[in-house]
């Protein structure tokens, strides 16, 4: 379980006196994630999720919390931040910035089918449209600048083959920044474990703490690389077509996006290969931390490179 900062019931009970959500009944660590400390919180008035932010700074957090409030008010099924008695969405607990959000029912899917992928496509497109009126901006904290910054730390820990692949792909991506692609607020981490379903219907999308301002196509590529992945790092054509067509029906693609699609799929794979390499080889001290296998996205990246001309295209 990824718990970097331990919170006791006594500590949380005292902290919750600044909220009008009842008295603490239960507290349970959430066994997922590698960036923040998360707990399920049960009070006499309901169920919530508590997040203690381990990396993000106080001045960065309004972007994410206000984004969730904005999307929630526009019909996106995402957690709604809970304001305290001072009408603030952000507090401090055990020395860390902390926030409470509403709890969303449902479970993530291990084996999504085409129908689930289509729902994800619709939801993501609606999220992108709703984000058009969100005025705050945040540069991508895990984009090209970060890849280049952490490469000197990672390269010595890799095999010669992987080091060469990493160098070449970062060089390749630096040639294609696509400043003319449609841009806006993106989730940037829309994996299967961040979408909840109940009775085969989406009930929520969670974990917005990698959200940023970037190409909308990048967000779509991240989702496709997880939701539509078959064995061996290749995309399943049926699930990919379902997700892309459902997305396109809500927000049609531009000609530039169709041309940029193969490069963006590679960029999305590279982003998570680099971050997983960093977390695997250079972990932070924590209580039962969980670092994911970097090899998964290395394989996806290699397959995207090898099969560039056979990748499922964006729907026309």
Please outline what is shown here.
This protein is of the alpha+beta class.
| CATH topology tier name of the largest domain | Aminoglycoside 3'-phosphotransferase, Chain: A, domain 2
Estimated share of beta-strand residues: 15-25%
CATH homologous superfamily grouping of the largest domain: Aminoglycoside phosphotransferase (APH), C-terminal lobe
Enumerate how many helices there are, as a single number. Answer: 9
Would you mind describing this structure in some detail?
- This protein has 316 residues and is an alpha+beta fold.
- The chain folds into two domains: 94 residues, Phosphorylase Kinase, domain 1 (2-Layer Sandwich), CATH 3.30.200; 197 residues, Aminoglycoside phosphotransferase (APH), C-terminal lobe (Aminoglycoside 3'-phosphotransferase, Chain: A, domain 2), CATH 3.90.1200.
- The chain contains nine helices and nine strands.
- The strands form three sheets. Strands 1-2-3-5-4 form a five-stranded antiparallel β-sheet, with helices on one face.
- α8 runs antiparallel to α9.
- The protein is globular and about 60 Å long.
- The chain starts with 8 loop residues before the first helix and ends in a 10-residue tail after the last helix.
- The model has no long low-confidence stretch (mean pLDDT 94).
Task: Summarize this structure as a short list of keywords or feature phrases.
316 residues, alpha+beta, Phosphorylase Kinase, domain 1, Aminoglycoside 3'-phosphotransferase, Chain: A, domain 2, two-stranded antiparallel ribbon, 9 helices, 9 strands, globular
